[in-house]
Specification:
Elements lengths: L1 H90 L2 H66 L1
Helix pairs in contact: 1-2
Length: about 160
């Protein structure tokens, strides 16, 4: 009787441990799947943020290009004023030359301000580009981690 009870108990324990062992990999695979889904959602969100950053950078680049065109036009206007001033000086018109000189100086101040604004915009674009690159690197690392997790999950699933 003791032997039968002992064998029955040992058999029961072995069945329970086998059932527990069989459920553990399944639970692990389910947990891995949930984690992979969460990682995929995060990567998708990062991708949307990168696309948004690209759009912002493109707009800033367009603004800088427009600013450069305007700066070039203002430089041409300043050159024209300098030429007209020089012509007035040649003709002896000091009052007209003084007015043109003042206008030219005002244009130069405006050009300097615009150069500073363009330089600032270029710095902002560079910072956005660096942030975007860092996000892309992190996203790539997440993809690699997800691939490793997927391979591990598939390996664990094949064991079951």
């Amino acid at each position: 009787m003791k032997t039968n009870t002992l064998m029955l108990t040992a058999g029961l324990f072995s069945m329970i441990s086998a059932a527990a062992f069989a459920q553990t990999p399944v639970a692990q695979v389910q947990h891995d799947n949930a984690q992979i889904r969460q990682d995929s959602k995060q990567i998708h969100q990062d991708t949307r943020e990168i696309k948004h950053d690209n759009a912002v950078i493109a707009v800033k680049k367009d603004e800088v290009a427009a600013g450069k065109q305007q700066l070039h036009a203002e430089k041409q206007e300043s050159k024209a004023l300098a030429h007209a001033e020089h012509q007035d000086l040649k003709q002896g018109n000091l009052a007209g030359a003084a007015q043109l000189e003042q206008a030219r100086r005002n244009e130069q101040v405006a050009i300097k301000q615009q150069k500073q604004e363009i330089h600032h915009d270029q710095k902002v674009i560079a910072h956005h580009a660096v942030d975007k690159h860092a996000t892309q690197v992190a996203r790539q690392e997440d993809k690699v981690d997800r691939h490793i997790d997927t391979a591990k999950r598939d390996h664990d699933a094949n064991k079951i």
